[in-house]
Amino acid sequence: MIELVFASGNKGKIAEVNKIMLPEFKVISIYELGEVPDIIEDGTTFEENAFIKAEAIYNIYKKPTIADDSGLAVDQLDGKPGVFSARYAGENCTYDDNNKKLIEELSNYPEPHTAQFICCAVYFDGRIKKSVTGILKGEIINEFRGQNGFGYDPIFQAANEKRTLAEMRSDEKNKISHRAKAFSKLKKILLTK
Ligand code: IMP
């Protein structure tokens, strides 16, 4: 089994990604290794930010590293909030603040507010760089529904679904998510490397 260091401190994400990468790979959180650097994600694309994280972690542990960066892109807003998804309503804002701001902004546009979650997953081992993208298409609705998940889940309805991601169980979301798609692709290309 090949060990991969995952440049993330999010326990839910680590468990989700580990499930996908097993049994060929074992994902280890940087938190299990010790030092967790403060990484400034100042890239302009998901891919740039994912590589910023992967390279920063690789440079400390010198072990094969995976990382991801994800966010929401709304068509009527020309792909916003994009790489600013986490802080759309300002520094230190809550998920609720972001969702309210987005609904408010989209009230100026006709429905449907088509959108997609995008996840870029990368691999870096000091020599080889790999990068893949996973997409989940859907639309932003103008009310909050459901309690599960995080971020924009309560206002995002996947295509051909009546429920928001926050109304789905985590195992249901993890089957269709942008992250699941990205890491499944990454696993495939790492196995053929
Ligand atoms: P990260 O790169 O995975 O940390 O995601 C950055 C931001 O994108 C998060 O803070 C959320 O606002 C948003 N986001 C990414 N993935 C999801 C998801 O699966 N559901 C809801 N929001 C997400």
Structure overview:
Helix 1 (about 10-20) crosses helix 6 (about 180-190). The radius of gyration is 17 Å and the shape is globular. With about 190 residues, the protein is α/β, with parallel strands linked by helices. The mean pLDDT is about 95. The protein is built from 6 helices and 7 strands. It has one domain: Maf protein. Strands 1, 2, 3, 4, 5, 6 and 7 form a 7-stranded mixed sheet that branches. Inosinic acid binds near residues 69 and 153.
Features:
193 residues, alpha/beta, single chain
* Secondary-structure-derived class: alpha/beta
The name CATH uses for the topology is: Maf protein
Largest sheet: 7 strands, mixed
Task: Report how far the terminal alpha carbons are from each other.
Answer: 15 Å
- Which residues sit in consecutive blocks of at least 5 with pLDDT less than 50? none
CATH architectural grouping: Alpha-Beta Complex
Order of helices and strands: EHEHHEEHEEEHH
Mean pLDDT score: 94
How many domains comprise the coordinates?
Answer: 1
Bound molecules: inosinic acid
Give the DSSP E fraction (strand runs of 2 or more residues). Answer: 25-35%
Task: Please describe the topology of this protein.
Layout: E1 2-6, H1 11-21, E2 25-29, H2 30-33, H3 46-61, E3 65-74, E4 80-81, H4 95-106, E5 113-124, E6 129-140, E7 156-158, H5 170-176, H6 178-191
Parallel strand pairs: 1-2, 1-3
Antiparallel strand pairs: 3-4, 3-5, 5-6, 6-7
The structure holds inosinic acid (IMP).
